[in-house]
Task: inverse folding
């Protein structure tokens, strides 16, 4: 009769890779979303300027 | 098209389809078949999301929209970045945590089977209807301009997409979409550069933009509060936000593109990629149309851009009327060119006294040519009530055929077909998946344990939807108005479907029975309002969603407490 192997120690908790956006310059997803929102505002302002400049 | 164009077209299209089918031919696990192999990085996901949304009509009609009405249509996309942020924060983590195959599976887990079936049914209804149009709409334009047989164009493109979508499922879809988008970007940038070189010497991009702006084609942002206006900053922000939330967050053809990413992080970045790129991309396509408009200000311009149909009518019984209109338009166009030259001279000479008058004269001359174009369309309808008078879809393809060199023509036709295949593949994949997961597995739960059988069934449903789409495109006999009607019907359903999901995410106390009836009442309300109010159809996304949520809360409040606890 074989002896069952001793239970393995639990693996150390790995940091969840999804918690960090992994994008240079951004530590949190909130930062990424703020950047995307700011980029959207800039695009709308640029389009407004474009309309006025060539109207 | 000459031999070189055919070689470019066939090599790119058949090459991509064969590559996709061959690379994914051993896909025999349901998870891989429906979600991909869970290794997709953000770039693949982002491009796949973009390719599914961008159909051939995007690249045929949107330049025509820029040509005809200017670039204001870009506002339609203003809600998109905000919607993608919300989906990334709220929808996506829940879909991934639950490990669902379809968005409607989530409704089943949150509410009950009937609400899941309602969500899946609304999706299958609207996407199934649209599936025929996705093949038909570009095929009719390409067949008309290129002289191809319409039925063969529909069947060959339809079968091509069926082969690789059925073979490799979601994996084949994202793999081929990546290459198809490469062809699309390459082709559109090439067309833009050639167009700039075809403009009159010395005009340049800035001069062309001033001409387009003077003639009202560059009004990108309209702050008007008039609810009857179709595209304003507000319809784009609010109506567009709800439309995008619904399309990207609850339409399986999009959800399937991003739930199967390598990780939540990759899926989120894929969505953020679209949030950043989509508005500039649509602006670029619309600008291309506005610059084609400028190009034709310096060239002889047709009175009607579907020249094949126009030629047929000029040789018909009312030919004399059409030829007279054509001559009148040609004369007015020459007069407009003189006014344009005078205005450009006044501008170049910095003559503040002459410039406003010259500009007013140019605008009046442009209105005169527009009036004759409208008169020609009225005459077409009078001669043949079934005549297709919307010629803006033919502007860009006409420019391609007449102005671009051989080889590039083949590349641009490949762009149109690649876009048709890419979006069609996403649709078929989603229709097959929803039918398998939300209908077949619900009705035959015991069969769901057989992995091989699941994949075979999913393949069969994908193929059947493909054949239905081909048959629909071949035999439905679409009119222009029907195509527009199907697009509007889609918008009428989206708001309510979104309402179901927002209740699921944010109103935890509302149960399945309440939201099910709320959705049916809200849908009825939207249809009644659509038939009584004259407001932009984008607003119905917001109205449908708000009504579904409100009725859901009210119905839940009126239900007995004991039922509420179990609902």
Result:
């Amino acid at each position: 009769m074989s002896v069952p192997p001793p239970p393995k120690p639990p693996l150390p908790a790995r940091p969840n890779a999804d918690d960090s956006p992994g994008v240079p310059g951004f530590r949190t997803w909130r930062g990424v979303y703020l950047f995307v929102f700011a980029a959207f505002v800039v695009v709308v302002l640029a389009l407004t300027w474009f309309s006025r400049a060539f109207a | 098209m000459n031999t070189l164009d055919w070689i470019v077209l066939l090599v790119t299209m058949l090459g991509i389809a064969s590559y996709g089918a061959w690379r994914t031919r051993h896909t025999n696990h349901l998870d891989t078949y429906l979600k991909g192999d869970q290794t997709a990085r953000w770039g693949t996901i982002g491009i796949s999301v973009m390719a599914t949304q961008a159909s051939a009509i995007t690249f045929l009609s949107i330049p025509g929209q820029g040509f005809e009405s200017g670039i204001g249509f870009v506002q339609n996309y203003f809600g998109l970045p905000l919607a993608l942020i919300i989906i990334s924060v709220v929808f996506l983590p829940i879909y991934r945590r639950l490990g669902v195959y379809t968005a409607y599976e989530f409704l089943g887990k949150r509410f009950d089977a009937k609400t899941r079936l309602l969500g899946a049914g609304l999706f299958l209804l609207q996407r199934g209807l649209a599936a025929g149009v996705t093949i038909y709409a570009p095929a009719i334009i390409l067949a008309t301009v290129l002289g191809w047989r319409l039925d063969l164009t529909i069947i060959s493109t339809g079968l091509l997409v069926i082969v690789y979508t059925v073979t490799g499922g979601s994996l084949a879809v994202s793999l081929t979409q990546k290459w198809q988008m490469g062809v699309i970007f390459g082709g559109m940038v090439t067309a833009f550069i050639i167009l700039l070189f075809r403009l009159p010497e010395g005009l340049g991009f800035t001069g062309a933009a001033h001409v387009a702006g003077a003639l009202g084609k560059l009004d990108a942002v309209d702050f008007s509060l008039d609810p009857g206006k179709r595209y304003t900053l507000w319809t784009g922000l609010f109506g567009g936000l709800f439309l995008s939330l619904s399309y990207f967050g609850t339409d399986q053809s999009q959800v399937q593109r991003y739930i199967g990413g390598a990780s939540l992080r990759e899926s989120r970045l894929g969505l953020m990629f679209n949030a950043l790129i989509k508005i500039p991309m649509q602006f670029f396509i619309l600008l291309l149309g506005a610059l084609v408009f400028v190009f034709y200000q310096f060239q002889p311009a047709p009175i009607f851009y579907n020249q094949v149909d126009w030629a047929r009518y000029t040789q018909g019984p009312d030919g004399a009327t059409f030829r007279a209109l054509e001559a009148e338009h040609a004369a007015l166009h020459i007069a407009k060119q003189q006014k344009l030259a005078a205005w450009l001279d006044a501008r170049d000479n910095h003559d503040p006294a002459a410039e406003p008058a010259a500009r007013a004269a140019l605008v009046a001359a442009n209105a005169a040519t527009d009036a004759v174009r409208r008169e020609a369309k009225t005459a077409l309808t009078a001669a043949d009530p079934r005549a297709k008078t919307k010629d803006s879809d033919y502007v860009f393809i006409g420019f391609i055929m007449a102005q671009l060199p051989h080889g590039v023509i083949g590349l641009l036709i490949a762009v149109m077909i690649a876009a048709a295949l890419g979006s069609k593949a996403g649709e078929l994949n989603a229709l097959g998946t929803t039918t398998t997961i939300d209908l077949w597995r619900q009705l035959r739960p015991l069969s769901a344990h057989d992995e091989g059988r699941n994949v075979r069934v999913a393949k069969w449903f994908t193929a059947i939807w493909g054949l239905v789409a081909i048959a629909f495109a071949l035999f439905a006999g679409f009119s222009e108005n029907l195509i527009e009607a199907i697009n509007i019907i889609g918008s009428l359903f989206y708001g309510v479907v979104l309402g179901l999901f927002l209740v699921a995410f944010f109103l935890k106390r509302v149960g399945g029975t309440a939201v099910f009836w709320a959705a049916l009442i809200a849908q009825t309300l939207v249809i009644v309002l659509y038939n009584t109010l004259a407001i932009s159809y984008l607003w119905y996304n917001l109205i449908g969603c708000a009504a579904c949520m409100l009725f859901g809360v009210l119905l839940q409040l009126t239900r007995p407490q004991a039922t509420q606890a179990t609902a």
